[in-house]
Amino acid sequence: MIEYFPITAAIAPDGKITLGGQNLDDLARSWGTPLYVYDAATLRRQVEILRRSLQAAYPGPSQVTYAGKAYFSLRMARHLAALGLGVDVVSLGELNIARQAGFAPQRVHLHGNNKSPQELENALKWGVQAIVVDSLDELALLEEIAKASGQTGRIWLRITPGLSVQTHPYRQTAHPASKFGLPIEDGQAAEAIHRAMGSRWLHLTGLHTHLGSQIFELEPYTRAVEMLCELARGEHFTPEDLSPGGGWGVRYVPEDSDEPVEGWVSAVSQTIQEQCRLAGWPLPKLILEPGRWLVAEAGVAVYTVGVVKTAMDGTCMVAVDGGMADNPRPALYQAGYTARLIPGPQRPPGGGDLATLHKVTVVGKFCETGDQLIPEVMLPSAQRGDLLVIPVSGAYHLSMASNYNLAPRPAVLWVDNGQVEVLQEREDPSAAGWWV
Question: Which of 82, 128, 286, 289 could connect to 108 by a Cys-Cys bridge, CB 3.0–4.6 Å?
Answer without folding.
Answer: 128
